[in-house]
Each structure stands twice: as C-alpha cells, then as structure tokens.
Amino acid sequence: MSTITDTTDLWALDWRNRGAALGEPWYTRQQPTAIKAPYPVVFNDDVAALLDIDAERARREGYAEVLSGNRVPEGALPVAHRYGGHQFGVWAGQLGDGRAITLGDIVNARGQSYDIQLKGAGKTPYSRFADGRAVLRSTVREYLGSEALAGLGIPTTRALAIVGSDAPVYRETVETAAIGTRVAPSLVRFGSFEMLFYNRQFDRLAPLADHVIETHHPDIAAIGDACERYRAWVAHVIAVTAELVADWQAVGFCHGVLNTDNMSVLGLTLDYGPFGFMDSFNPCWICNHTDDAGRYAYNQQPAVGLWNLGRFVQAVLPLLADQPEAAVEAGQNLLEAYRGSYDRAYQARMRAKLGLLDTAEGDADLVERLLKRMAANGADFTRTFRALGHVSADPGATGAPFVDEFVDRDAAHAWLADWRKRLGNTAADDGQRAQRMRLTNPKYVLRNYLAQAAIEQAQAGDCREIERLHAILRRPFDEQPEHADYARLPPDWARGLVLSCSS
Ligand code: AMP
Ligand code: MG
Q1: Over the stretch 376-396, which tens digit does the pLDDT of each residue have?
Q2: Cα(98) to centroid(ligand 1), Å
Q3: Is 355 a pocket residue for ligand 1 (Cβ < 6 Å)?
Q4: Which of 16, 32, 157, 190 could join 260 in a cystine, given CB atoms 3.0 to 4.6 angstroms apart?
C-alpha cells in the first residue's frame, strides 16, 4: 500500500517509448501544448489498475498536470502517429494524430503493454487546419462510450481520465476544452498501413507490421517464414474484426464513422465520435446525422468491416508474397474468411441472446423473424432481449414482460410460441436459462439521453453524473434495481437529439 509519504513519482511507470524508437515516418516526436489551468474531471480506477497506477494516490496528489500534457512524466517520449485513411469510401490522404499525443507506451507488472495517449493535447504536424483540441462534450462521450463497451466485454480502447480547462474551443458554438486519456495495447490503425502504401513507401510496411506483431502477437512472431508470418497476422486482423463487428451488432451498437483510420489492427473499438446504442430497433439506423447516405448505418457495419479490410489487405499486399500476382491471390484468399467468421460469430451471439444452448437449422431464421417484429413495432433493442430472459418456456405461461415491449402483442406471442418450441427440452430450465441470458443481454447501455444528461451536468461543473453512469455501465448485466430508471425508454425530449462529427 502506498501512503501519503510516497516520494516516488506516481508517473514513474515502465516507459518503453516504442513509438519514439521507431520514429519517422511512422511516429513524430511531439510535446503536448500546455493548457490554461487544467482541473480534474474524472479518473477511472479500472484503467488505473491496468497501468499499475494507484488511483487513490492519483486523486489525492492530482492528475491534471500530467494528464493535460502540462507536465510530461520523466522517461516518457511523446509522439504523434502518422496515418491516412479512406473516409466515406474515398482515400483521404494523410490524416494522422492531429490532436492526440501518445505520451509513450508502458509495460505493467503482468508484462502487458499499453499506449497512454492524451487526446486534445494540442497541435501536431498532422493537425492540418484544426486546433489540436477536444471539447468536454466529446471527451465525456468517449470516456463513457469506451467504458460502456468494456463493461459489455467488447474489445475497445479504454479511458483513464478526463481533465478539463476553461480554455475556449470553437465548434458550432464556443465550448470548453478537455483532454481525455486514452489507453490501449496499440493505437495502430488500418490507415497506418494505407498511408505507407499510398505513399509508395513499401519498405516501411514491414517495420510497422513487425512492431505490432512482436509487441502483441508472440505466437505469430514465432513463425519463421516472413510471408507466412504476415499472412497469419492478416488472417488474425480479419478474424478479430469479424468478431468485433458481431459484438457491436449483438448489443445494437453503431460506431457511426467507420472510416479506415478508425479501424484498429487489434480489433478494438476505436475513435468514439457520433456513436450510439439503439433505442427502438431499426436495422437502417444512422447514428451520425452527417452520414446522409447511411454508409455507416447499423445494418451496413458487417459489410463495411469487409470493405475496410479490403483496403487494409491491399495496403499490406507487398508483405504477403514476393510476386504481385501471388500476393493478390493470398490477399483474396484471406479476405474470403471474413464472411464465414462474421456469420459464425453473429449467429453464436444471437443464439446466446435467445438462450439457446445448441445449434439447429432454422435458428438464423428465428432470430431474423424476431428482429423483423421488433423493427415493425419499434421495440427497444436492449429491453426486448433483456425481457426475453424473464419469460418462461412453458407455453401456458404469460409472455410478460417481453410482449409488453411490442405494440402488436399477437405478433410477439406468435414468435414466442416458435421460440418455446425451439427451446424444447434442452433449455427448458427457466431459472438456469434466465441466469444465462442475463449474462448476455445487458440491462443497461449508454443510451444517448443518458450520455447527454451527464455531459450537460459536467458542462455546468458537476461531474458526479459521469461517475454514477460509469458505475452502472461497469456492470451492465447486473439488475441494480436501485438504478432501474437508467434502463428506461428515452424520454420524449431525447428523440430529437442529433449527433455530429464535431468533437
Ligand atoms: P476523427 O473524426 O476524430 O476520427 O478525426 C479525423 C482526423 O481529423 C484525425 O486525423 C484527427 O486527428 C483529425 N482531427 C479531428 N479533430 C481535430 C482537431 N480539433 N485538431 C486537429 N486534428 C483534428
Ligand atoms: Mg479518427
């Protein structure tokens, strides 16, 4: 236990600075820009634990100086990462960390590596025309969004803290600045490789791929033949992307801006902008109001995952084989696995959501018919699945509270009859099934209106709602009857909420 007499620097972590060591053209050394009077907003014990940081001591001693970027910890060599990306289907050229500065990467006592990054810490060589800052609103959304997905067990970057400053930031209106500390094993993106490919820096692909493989995939690093090693790595990226998209679909999560610069090579949910959890189920739901064409609508995410992987695989083709034709063939073969991986992952999650223990023909159809009915009735995605867990398999039993989520109760009852038939004897133990379903159908998700309330209170200087909401979303599968209000349908005022990319 540390005490108040601790004299070691709280931030004297085991800094490795692999980004700085790799250097140009992948990483550029960049100091954060100091900001006026930073103050603490929230600090996350869970993420502190990943980094072996004593959260209590951080709160006591203050973390705003370091996590604003005003004081760089000794031993850390801050960098900005250079990447590009396809934005809304078009190659956008160089983007890069325009406002995110990675202090460095550390290794914890368990040997796990984490990048620690300050988002909104000032301009970098990649800021283009923008100010290098982030606003409190978007920083709170990223904090809550990433911790909500983590609570659901979905791979994501994490949020260690938020630091605020009254420095003005100009968006659609004047807002105040914040710096979010983002933590992830790696923040390398599909676009990190695309940047090198489009710049014809083909010889720069391997060092970045090696950096990712050596740091995060020791099994793959052990493969002797280089092309074979890179193919195994690409197969892994494809597999984790398929799993990640299936995870999103199964909780009604929409990322909102699935550009290739926002796609993690570790299969982490990355870059929280106008993301959202669905309230009433609408397969065509678009959470980003600037996405008129619905390119990143909920039901497009599985196909977008493949499209983005196509861009990634194209960029790393030179690694896959010595001859171009062989590389293209290898790349195509690897991509072919996506559809099957995605379907298997999605169906497994949906079967679990229905409480099914085994696989039978017709399961996909059963899921589809439920979703159709939910869409026709505008049934709430989260509440409907949660309610299903409380329904008895006994055909004589009431369908409540599940049918209560539907306007057309007969349609809900008709589907329930099919579901009960399918449950048969295998999963008929209501108690056990309810228990299982509780662990896969969350009661609490970060509905937009909940995030909005936390933001508005934070903007008024009260951060307790962020803490309260975070505490609930850390264990979204638990009943938490004292917080039942947070599982309610959105109030009327929330229906008009629109989210833009501005952050
Ligand atoms: P995002 O929409 O946050 O994923 O950002 C897309 C690109 O724009 C990335 O290269 C960001 O670093 C950059 N960017 C976004 N906002 C800012 C900002 N305020 N200052 C500098 N760069 C930014
Ligand atoms: Mg981004």
Answers
A1: 999 999 999 999 999 999 999
A2: 5
A3: no
A4: 190
- Do 294 and 254 form a contact (C-beta atoms < 8 A)? no
Domain ranges of the chain: 210-347, 356-438
Is residue 261 annotated as a catalytic residue, yes or no? yes
Query: Cα of 180 to ligand 1 centre, how many Å?
Result: 14
Question: Closest Cα partner for 487 from 302, 279, 287?
Answer: 279
Instruction: Measure Cα distances from 148 to 67, 285, 451 in Å.
Output: 22, 20, 11
pLDDT digits (tens, 9 = 90+) for 241-300: 999 999 999 999 999 999 999 999 999 999 999 999 999 999 999 999 999 999 999 999
Q: Whose CA is nearest to atom 23 of ligand 1?
A: 98
Residue 146, token pair as written in the block: 């990433």
Structure tokens at 94: 């160089």
The neighbourhood of ligand 2, an ion, using CB within 5 A, equals: 262, 271
Q: Which of 82, 86, 95, 135 to mutate to test the pocket of ligand 1 (most atoms within 8 A of CB)?
A: 95
Distance between CA atoms of residues 463 and 28, nearest Å: 34
Q: Which ligand is nearest to the CA of 99?
A: 1
Task: Answer positive or negative: Cα dihedral of 263, 490, 137, 294.
Answer: positive
What is the model's pLDDT at position 122? 98
Residue type, 203: D
